[in-house]
């Protein structure tokens, strides 16, 4: 039995998806949430096998929620289910650890299959999501060198690091918890292939110099 938790700000969507999934004898919907805050409060207590997350939520976004949940609930699999084919959101979702990203116009059988696959720990990408991701990666690599895979928020974080700010100071600037900033810095260093924040600061300073002609 795969235990499923649904996160979507539209109750009608949650009810529809729950009805669809519970028609499958091997799936059980153990809980629902309409906001990121509700999901963060309920999912760690229920420990489902998979969280099905909308990308846009009233108090945050599903990508950051995916990252936070996976850091709090080891073994949790996440499937993004959204109406938006935003390329950056797809890339960020995969980098945040989501096992799949599917669009809401997916037919019911394929959604059930996706929940089975991702809930079992497999990786899945909707064909459009995969194509968009590859196009985005190729374009970014060509245009942006070492910063190719960084989101706007990660670039903002890199700027603060290069300015010498501590995690606490960055948390205030970005309106985040200090622990969240620590996780973001760790992920940023991983994406840059670096071990220390001073290396990232040096890189950012060098790139600034190149762009200003220095």
From TrEMBL:
**Positions of modified residues (4-aspartylphosphate):** 54
Report the PROSITE patterns cross-referenced here: HTH_LUXR_1, HTH_LUXR_2, RESPONSE_REGULATORY
Keyword terms of this UniProt record: DNA-binding, Phosphoprotein, Transcription, Transcription regulation
Q: Which residues form the Response regulatory domain?
A: 3-119
Q: Which Pfam families match?
A: GerE, Response_reg
What InterPro entries is this protein classified in? CheY-like_superfamily, NreC/VraR/RcsB-like_REC, Sig_transdc_resp-reg_C-effctor, Sig_transdc_resp-reg_receiver, Tscrpt_reg_LuxR_C, WalR-like
Determine the domain of life of the protein's source. Answer: Bacteria
Q: What residues does the HTH luxR-type domain cover?
A: 143-208
SMART domains (alphabetical): HTH_LUXR (SM00421), REC (SM00448)
Q: What is this protein called?
A: Two-component system response regulator DevR
